[in-house]
Amino acid sequence: MEHVLFEQNAVTVTNARFIVGGQTYAVRNVTSVRPVKYPPKRTTPAVCLFFCTAVATLTFALGAIELVICAGLATAACVCWLFKQRPVFAVILVTSSGEVQALEHYHWPFIDRVIVALNEAIVSQH
Fold first, then answer.
1. What is the pLDDT of residue 78?
2. Are the beta carbons of 124 and 15 closer than 8 angstroms?
3. Neighbour order of strands in the sheet with 30-38
4. Of 86, 90, 103, whose CA–CA distance to 41 is shortest?
5. Could you tell me if 79 and 49 are in contact, meaning their C-beta atoms sit under 8 angstroms apart?
6. What letters, b where the CB count within 10 A reaches 16 and e where it falls short, cover 70-102?
7. How far apart are CA 75 and CA 67, in angstroms?
C-alpha cells in the first residue's frame, strides 16, 4: 500500500514515487539522494552595477545633475539586485543509469525535508 511521506507545493514523496510537478520518479530506481548548493549568480548584476557607476561618474563629471540622479538610482537598484541573489539548492537522485537533478528551490529547509522523506522511501523499498 502506498502512503504519503511528504506533500507540499507541487512536490509529493510516497514510499513508491517521487512526484515533482508533472514528473514522476519511481523510488525503486533511486539508489541514493543528495543535496547540492549552487552559489548565487551575481555576474549580471555586477556588470550592470559597473556600467551604472561608470555612467553616474561620467554624468557627474559633465555636470548633468538630472542624469547623475537617474544613474545613481540605477546604481542603487543594481546594488540591491546584487545582494538579493540567493543560493539555489537542488535534489539530486542517483540511479543505476546516472544522476538526475529532480528539484530546485531557494529554501534549504524545504529541500532538507524532501531529502529526508526520499531517504525514508528508499529505505522502505529494501
1. 87
2. yes
3. 30-38, 88-95, 98-105
4. 86
5. yes
6. ebbebbeebeeeeeeeeeebebebeeeeeeeeb
7. 12
Sheet holding 17-20, edge to edge: 4-8, 11-14, 17-20, 23-26
Q: What is the CA radius of gyration of the chain?
A: 23
State the residue for C-alpha cell 502506498: 2
pTM attached to this predicted model: 0.76
Q: Which three cell numbers stand for residue 81?
A: 539586485
CA angle 37, 111, 15 (to 5 degrees): 130
Confidence of residue 96 (pLDDT cuts 50, 70, 90): confident
Closest listed residue to residue 27, CA positions, set 35, 38, 15: 15
Dig out the grid coordinates for 104 from the structure: 530546485
Q: Are 40 and 87 in contact (CB under 8 A)?
A: yes
pLDDT, tens only, 13-23: 999 999 998 89
Bridge partner list, 101: 92
Q: Decide: residue 43, CB within 10 A, 0-12 exposed, 13-18 middle, 19+ buried.
A: exposed
